[in-house]
Design brief:
Blueprint: E1 9-12, H1 17-27, E2 34-38, E3 44-48, E4 56-60, H2 67-82, E5 87-92, H3 111-122, E6 126-130, E7 145-148, H4 151-160, E8 166-170, H5 176-186, E9 189-199, E10 202-209, E11 216-224, H6 228-239, E12 244-252, H7 258-263, E13 269-273, E14 285-288, H8 291-302
Parallel strand pairs: 1-4, 4-5, 5-6, 6-7, 8-9, 8-11, 11-12, 12-13, 13-14
Antiparallel strand pairs: 2-3, 9-10
Helix pairs in contact: 1-8, 2-3
């Protein structure tokens, strides 16, 4: 019997139970049982309640802060390694700490590289993730990384809107590559927002490069945190004559008052994936699930098949 014919097992971290259940259901399997013991000081211990010896296992969980979510992923990987799992694939829909991918000032860590090394040291033999904040994070790993693009799930939704004067926009210079990739497939023009920050999450100045008059604009980005950039961009675009402004962002961090900021903004709609659980529902927020994409890729990984057809950009 070849290894690929042995059915894999699936386990979920506690921060992503709904998404993990959807992914495994799409795969056609069920989640394995993980029991957590809790100490009064907050320390916890996961235990896999079934044998994983000689099998491929998939551990599903996003690693957004707080640090317990990352620690939980690392501990379950370590438990699987010590239980003699043959291959351990960490399925991390949202790769947390990815904004710290370089030294942008003296005496700061490159935390994304640190997280990559921690995952490998714990025992992960493969990583599956989506829309990393910076593509070069793949190079921080010495193990295979399947870096999926959320455009695969967002593109059909954008096309279904049938917007008459579609234009793609990037909320900053760093996202221009993503915006151009979307525009290429949708055959439309691109505008770019140029912004300056006083500090993290605080915008001091923003300008628009391009003409949006009479256009139905869709801002594309990899994440939305405080929503300050997106709401400010939407306000400027509407002032410049845009017909409507929507935003498509992969990871809905939505910290602090972000949801209220979106509800009170000029945005018609914010479209996000379910890589991070939404704190509360909003009439302006549309969720497009990434579960079928991850399930398909996991099946191809298990069966040693190509995943190149899962990429749009």
């Amino acid at each position: 019997m070849s290894f690929s014919t042995i059915e894999p097992k699936f386990f979920a971290c506690r921060q992503s139970p709904e998404l993990a259940t959807k992914i495994v259901s799409e795969y056609g399997a069920s989640l394995g049982n993980v029991i957590f013991s809790e100490y009064s000081d907050g320390e916890f211990q996961p235990a896999l309640e079934e044998s994983v010896r000689g099998r491929r296992i998939f551990i599903i969980g996003s690693t957004f802060p707080n640090a317990d979510n990352l620690m939980e992923m690392l501990m379950i990987i370590d438990a699987a390694k010590r239980a003699s799992a043959r291959h351990i694939t960490a399925v991390i829909p949202y790769f947390g700490w990815a904004r710290q991918d370089r030294k942008d000032k003296p005496r700061v860590p490159i935390t994304a590289k640190l997280v990559a090394k921690m995952l490998e040291t714990a025992g992960a033999t493969r990583i599956i993730t989506m829309d990393l904040h910076a593509d070069q994070i793949q190079g921080f790993f010495e193990r295979p990384v399947d870096h999926l693009y959320a455009s695969t799930i967002f593109m059909p939704y954008i096309k279904s809107l049938n917007l008459p004067n579609l234009m793609i926009a990037s909320p900053d210079m760093g996202g221009s590559k993503r915006a151009y990739a979307y525009s290429k497939h949708l055959k439309c023009d691109v505008v770019i927002c140029y912004k300056q920050r006083l500090k993290a999450n605080v915008i001091s100045h923003m300008e628009l490069i391009g003409d949006v008059k009479g256009k139905d604009v869709i801002l594309v980005d990899d994440m939305v945190d405080t929503a300050g950039t997106l709401t400010k961009a939407a306000e400027i675009m509407m002032e410049k004559g845009a017909t409507s402004v929507r935003a498509v962002t992969t990871h809905g961090i939505l910290s602090g008052g972000a949801i209220e900021r979106i509800e009170n903004s000029k945005l018609t709609e914010l479209i996000i994936s379910d890589t991070i659980p939404l704190k509360r529902e909003s009439s302006k927020i549309k969720i497009v699930t990434c579960a079928p994409l991850f399930a398909d890729v996991m099946q191809n990984v298990q069966n040693n098949k190509s995943i190149s057809d899962k990429f749009i950009m």
